[in-house]
Amino acid sequence: MTLITDVRLRRVLDSRGNATVEADVLTESGGFGRGKAPSGASTGEYEAIELPAQEAIANARDDALPRLIGEVHAGNQRDVDAALHAADGTDDFSGIGANSAVAISMAAAKAGADVLGAPLFQHLGGTFRGNEYPTPLGNIIGGGEHAADATNIQEFLAAPVGAPSVEEAVFANAAVHQEVHDILADRDLPAGKGDEGAWAPSVSDDEAFEIMDEAVETVADDFGFAIAFGLDVAGAELYDEDEDGYVYDDGVKSTEEQIEYIAEKVEEYDLVYVEDPLDENDYEAFADLTDRVGDQTLVCGDDLFVTNVERLEAGISVGAGNSILIKPNQIGTLTDAVDAIELATRNGYESVVSHRSGETEDTTIAHLAVATDAPFIKTGAVGGERTAKLNELIRIEDNAV
Ligand SMILES: C=C(OP(=O)(O)O)C(=O)O
Ligand SMILES: [Mg+2]
Q1: CB 315 within 8 A of CB 326
Q2: Which among 152, 154, 156, 389 is the best mutation to test ligand 1's pocket, defined by most ligand atoms within 8 Å of the CB?
Q3: For a Cys-Cys bond, which of 175, 184, 274, 367 suits 189, CB 3.0-4.6 Å?
Q4: Residue ranges of the Enolase C-terminal TIM barrel domain (predicted)?
């Protein structure tokens, strides 16, 4: 019933106005699924390869479609994703493009769910899933590769850890976003928004820490539950090999100084989450920081692990981090993403399912987080391509999908 009878690929816009790949998968019994590839800006060195959209579409039409249409059942995600790997023939999806691969992988999952008449999270996670919801990490203030002339640290993320429901958590993050707007206005600090909708004021990182601290406290008082915050440092973007250190507006920090700096911020602000505090090649420094603060906060590898089981295994073996960011397009298929989550879970690492800075209205990651019992999802706080996922989580919680 879920035999794939057609796959249609087209170029559509992402949230930055760039071209991305949209895939439709149709099945024998009338099932339909549509998936769209997101796109990073602060991409990790070891990510699967995104090709220009037109090239990814042309290559996937030539190589992947013949292996899918009439050959594979959309309901069997491992078969779909194995066919994509076989069609690609490389170990980084540089043949058909990770953008074509992930769009088709997600579209097939939705077509499989459609035939079953089940919500996507249930098709992916099984019938016993759907009662645990991830805490949304909301990007509130940001800079780095996502906004010019703003903070050096890429993301300051609200974390409503005490929220009684996903709905309350989503609204709390939006309120923190609004509160930061008001604080910036009080301080006469004009601010536009970065690629993910976070405020991008021209302030020092220290001032951003103060503003976040004030905003989460105010909103926590209003909402009546605990709201903490965390960071995506995007350390690989700050690290400069020639300088042998992390380059900030106010100077260069050696690796030891960077570890000290992050550890101090964890203590000072009770940070619950620190993503990519160090360079993507420095497992050892990740392990040192995890040793120091891993019992107080999540030390999460994004560019470090790139959703890749081999890189995660290397990290686990030396105690680098205690958490992994999961971005399906970093690795190319849902199967690979779920394998990374399962390996993480078996080894006591928490999974944080994540959007990209270039996004679409696709909601697959909301379902993936629920399907895998991921404790966190990072998918912004405001902006249509971000609220698409947040509102889908509210619907999942309300049994309305
Ligand atoms: C979402 C992120 O940004 P990008 O998509 O630009 O890699 C990130 O670094 O976690
Ligand atoms: Mg990151």
Answers
A1: no
A2: 154
A3: 184
A4: 130-400
pLDDT 10s digits, 363-380: 999 999 999 999 999 999
Averaged confidence pLDDT in the chain: 97
Domain 4-117 sits in which CATH superfamily?
Answer: Enolase-like, N-terminal domain (3.30.390.10)
Q: Single out the residue of 387, 388, 332 nearest to residue 37, CA to CA.
A: 332
Token representation of residue 77: 């995600």
So where are the chain's domains?
A: 4-117, 135-397
Over the stretch 108-165, which tens digit does the pLDDT of each residue have?
999 999 999 999 999 999 999 989 999 999 999 999 999 999 999 999 999 999 999 9
Tell me the per-residue pLDDT of 309-360, one tens digit each, with 9 for 90 and over.
999 999 999 999 999 999 999 999 999 999 999 999 999 999 999 999 999 9
211 lines ligand 1 (CB under 6 A): no
ipTM of the predicted structure? 0.99
Is the minimum distance from the CB of 386 to ligand 1 under 6 angstroms? no
CA distance 163 to 385: 23
Residue 314 belongs to what H/E stretch? helix 309-318
User: Which of 312, 357, 325, 365 is closest to 121 using CA atoms?
Assistant: 365
Residue 146 DSSP label: G
Burial of residue 3, with CB atoms counted within 10 A of its CB: 0-12 exposed, 13-18 middle, 19 or more buried: middle
Atom of ligand 1 nearest to the CA of 44: 7
